[in-house]
Amino acid sequence: MKYEATNLTVSSSPHAHSKNSTAVIMRDVCIALLPALIAAIRFFGWRALTLTMLSVAGCVFFEWGFRKLMKKDCTVGDWSAVVTGMLIAFVCPVTLPFWTILVADLFAIVLVKQLFGGIGMNIVNPALAARAFLFSWPSLMSGSWVRPGTAISAFSTPSAQVLDGLTSATPMAALAENTLSAESLLDLFLGNIGGSLGEVSAAALLLGGIYLLLRRVISVRIPLAYLGTVAVLTVLFPLGGNDCLDWMLCQLLSGGLMLGAIFMATDYTTSPVTHGGQIAYGIGCGVLTVLFRYFGSYVEGVTYAILIMNCCIGFFDKLGVPKRFGLVRQKKKGGADE
Amino acid sequence: MYRHFVIFLKIPENSTLQTVDFSKLLCYIKIVIIRIEVMQPMALSFFGGVHPKGYKELSCEVPILPFCPKTVSIAMSQHIGRPCTPLVKIGDRVSVGQKIGDGEGLCVPVHASVSGTVIAVELRPTPSGTDGMCVVIESDGRDTLCPDIHKRESIAELTGEELTAIIREAGITGMGGAGFPTNVKISSGLGKVDTVIVNGAECEPYITSDDRLMREAPEKIAGGIRIIQKILQPERTAVGIEKNKAKAIAAMQAALPGDVELLPLRVRYPQGAEKQLIQTVTGRCVPPGGLPAAVGCAVFNVATCAAIYDAVYEGMPLVRRAVTVTGRAIARPSNFSVPIGTLYSDLIEAAGGFSSEPYKILCGGPMMGIAQHTLACGTIKGNNALTCFSQADNHEVEVPHCIRCGKCLDVCPMHLMPLQLQRARQKGDLAALEKGNVMDCIECGSCAYNCPAGIHLVQSFRTAKKMLRDAKAKEAVK
Ligand code: SF4
Ligand code: SF4
Asked: What is the Cα–Cα distance from A193 to A198, expressed in whole angstroms?
C-alpha cells in the first residue's frame, strides 16, 4: 500500500463547522456597542471612554483571576467578560468613581457569573445585577446624572460640589412625575439628554441592534416583543393627561429601555431559547417594565423587569417547546402541515 | 402559503381598476400566474437546516473515470441488517458479478466486483470503524463477466414480484448513505405508496458523485425510475435536485419521461435527508419512529435508480459505484467509478495522493461521514465519497461551554432542543432524554455545525440513544 496514513483524527460527525464561534459572537456584540460608546464620548467627554476601558479591564482580570484561582480552564478568550465590562460601564453615570466600577465588576464576574459555573450557567444578567447592586449607593447612582455636553476630562472624578452644578433632571425623572421631558424628541432620540453613560443615545443603540440582527447574533423576537409591548401599553394608558403618542415615544426613548431591550434582554444565557418562549419573555419584560415605571418607587423599571424575567426562563422555555416532528399530520391527513 | 401572499400583494396595485387599461391588468395577472407557477415547488419546505460551504467545485467538473484496482476487500456487511455469509474460500477463482456472499432475513447478496482469485476471507477493517468479515480478491485485470449475466431487451412481461426479486439478487441497497436493502423498501411500500421521490439533492458538501451520475447517465436513472413505477404504481413521481446543480437538472429534464416531475430544491442541508425531502416534496411528515411508507412515500437515491436499471436491463448486480475522492488534502479531487471493495489507499493514489498532511479521512461527506483510522478499508455500497481533510479544517474547541444561544434549536430539522438534550445526557437523565425525543434525532449534524461553542452534540446524542436502548433492553429482560 503506497498511502498509509498515521495520525488520523477520529471523531464523531459532523466534521464541518460554521465559522461562528463564541468569541466571534461576543466580538460582534462589542462592535455593536461601539456607536453608543462614541455617542457617550461625544456627550460626556473622554471620561466615558476611560471608565469603559477600566471596567472591561476589571472584568477580564477578575474572570482570568478567578478561573486561575479555581484551577479551571481559562475562558477570557471568549470575549464575554469584555461584553460584561462594557455593559456595566454603560449602565453607570459617567461620573462614577473609578473604584466603584471595579467593585461592580468584581460583583458581576465573581458572584453572579463564575460562582454559578461561568459562561452559560449564570441565572441573571451580570451587568444588570451589578447595576442593581450599585443602587445600594443611591448617592452615587441616581441624582448624579450630568448634563450632556459637559465634557469631563479622562481621569478626573468631579467632587460632589462640582457635580451639583453639572447635573440635570433626566427624562426618566420627568416621566416619573407624569410629565413629558423638557428635551425635544429628537434630542431624546440622538441622546442629547442626561442619563447613564451608554443608555442615552437610542439612535446609536438601534444602529448596534441592526448590526446584531444582520450578523444574526440576535433575532428580532425579544427586542420587538419587548419594545412593542411597552409601546402598546404606554400608548393605551398615557399618564398625566399627555398626548398618547408623545408619551409613548418619550417612554420608548428614555431610560435604559433601548439598551435593555437590544443588549440585556437578548443575553443568550439569561433568555429563553425557544422561539415562542422568546416572544413571551419579551412581552413579559415589557409588561413588568411599564408596571415598574408606572407604580414603582424607582424611576427606572428596566433593570428589575429583566432581572425578574431572567429567573423565569425555565418556564418560558417550556412554553415554546417545538412541536414534535411528524405529530402534526395525524390531524390533517395528507395535507400540508402548518 | 406563498401563493396567497403573492395574490394579496398584487391586487392592491390594481385597486384603481378604472384607470388601468385592460391590457395592463392582464399583464399583472400573468405575472401573478407565472409567479405562482415558479414558486409552487418552493411553497413547501422544512424547518431549520444550515448552509455549509459546498466545496463541490473541487470535483464537480471531473467526469467519472473507471478505476481498476489490483485487490479489493469486500465487506460481508454492506448495509444495516444481517451480514452475509461468505460463499467462497481462499484460492477460488471468481468472475465479475458472481455471488460471493448471501444470507437470510434483512440481507441482500454481495458479488465479486473484479475477476481473479480469492486470497483471503478474514476480518479486515471496514468503513464503519470496526473490523468485519471481508472477502479479499486479487484481480487478474481481465474483468471477465460471470456467465450468469444476461441482458434483457424488454421488461414488459415481468411482474412486480419478479422485478423485486431481480433487485434483491443484484444486491441493491440504498446508495445515499444509510443503505437499506432496496427490495425490502419496495415490498414494504407495495400498495401503500402513492408518491415515489427520487433523491438527487446531494446536500452534503464536497460530494459530487450523484451530480456527475445525473449529468453522465440520466437515461439510466430514468430507466430505473420506470422500473420502480412499474412495481409500485405511484400516482406521483418526483425527482428532487438542489438548485445549485443546474447542469444535472438540465440533463435530467431531457431524459425524464413526461409523467415524472422534476423539482429544483432550495440549497440547504439536510435537504436530502429522507424525512425532510418527503416534507419538502409532499408536505407530509413521517411520524416518529415510522417509515416513509406510513405517509405513502418511498424515496430512492438516483444512484440506486441507476443500479436498478443495470440490474434489470443489463443483468449486472451492484458491483461498481461512483465515488468522489475529494477534500483539501487531496491533490486532484476526482470522481471514479470503482468496484465495491476498492481500498481507500488505492483511491487516494488514483486521485494524485495527498497534497498536505491529512487530518481526517471520512467515508462520506463532512456532515454525516465516518472518520477513518486506517486506509486499509474497502469501499462499500453506500459509500459515495472519500473526503480528506487537512489541518486547515480542524475546528476543535478545547473545552466547549454552552452559551445557551439556541442556535442549535434554530436549525434542528427534527424540531428537537439539542441543548436541553445535551444537558440531560450529561446528567444521565433518561426520562428527560425520552421526553425530549432524542430517538427522533436523524444525526444530521446541523446543530453541532451551527453551535458556536463547538459542543459535540451529535456524539452526545448517539451515546444518549444507546443509553436509552440499553435501558429498554434491560427492562425487557426483567
Ligand atoms: S438534534 Fe439531531 S436531528 Fe436535530 S440538528 Fe442535531 S443531529 Fe440533526
Ligand atoms: S448552539 Fe451550542 S452553545 Fe448554543 S445553545 Fe446550542 S449547544 Fe449551547
From this structure: 11
A210: its cell numbers:
441592526
Per-residue b or e along A11-26, where b marks 16 or more CB atoms closer than 10 Å to that residue's CB: ebbbbbbbebbbeebb
Residues 6+ away with beta carbon under 8 Å from B255: B218, B219, B221, B222
DSSP designation for B354: B
Q: Could you tell me if the CB of B387 is within 6 A of ligand 1?
A: no
| CATH code: domain of residue A55 | 1.10.3430
pTM of the predicted structure, to 2 decimals: 0.87
Is any ligand 1 atom within 6 A of the Cβ of residue B303?
A: no
Alpha helices in chain A (DSSP H): 22-44, 47-69, 80-90, 98-106, 126-134, 138-141, 160-166, 171-176, 185-190, 202-214, 221-236, 244-253, 257-259, 275-295, 302-310, 313-319
- The residue whose CA is least distant from atom 2 of ligand 2 is B451
In the DSSP assignment, the letter for residue A262 is I
pLDDT digits (tens, 9 = 90+) for A196-247: 888 889 999 999 999 999 999 999 999 999 999 999 999 999 988 888 988 9
Asked if A269 and B403 come within 8 Å (Cβ–Cβ), the reply is yes
Nearest Cα to Cα of residue A104 among A126, A73, A81, A80:
A126
Q: Give which of B293, B278, B263, B340 is closest to B99, Cα–Cα.
A: B340
Grid coordinates representing A301? 423599571
Residue A27, domain member (yes or no) = yes
Segments forming the whole domain that contains residue A93: 22-153+167-319
ipTM over the 0.90 cut-off? no
Residue with cell 406563498: B2
Q: Cα(B106)–Cα(B77) distance, rounded to whole angstroms? A: 11
DSSP assignment of B237-259 equals EEEEEETT-HHHHHHHHHHS-TT
CA angle B262, B264, B265 (to 5 degrees): 130
Within a domain: A11: no
- Strand B334-339 versus strand B64-66 pairing type: parallel
Helix/strand/coil for B11: helix
Instruction: Report how many domains make up chain A.
Output: 1
Q: Which residue in A2, A10, A15, A114 has the most chain B C-beta atoms within 10 A of its own C-beta, making it the best mutation to test that interface?
A: A15
- Asked whether residue A336 is assigned to any structural domain, the reply reads no
- Per-residue pLDDT reduced to its tens digit, B402-441: 999 999 999 999 999 999 999 999 999 999 999 999 999 9
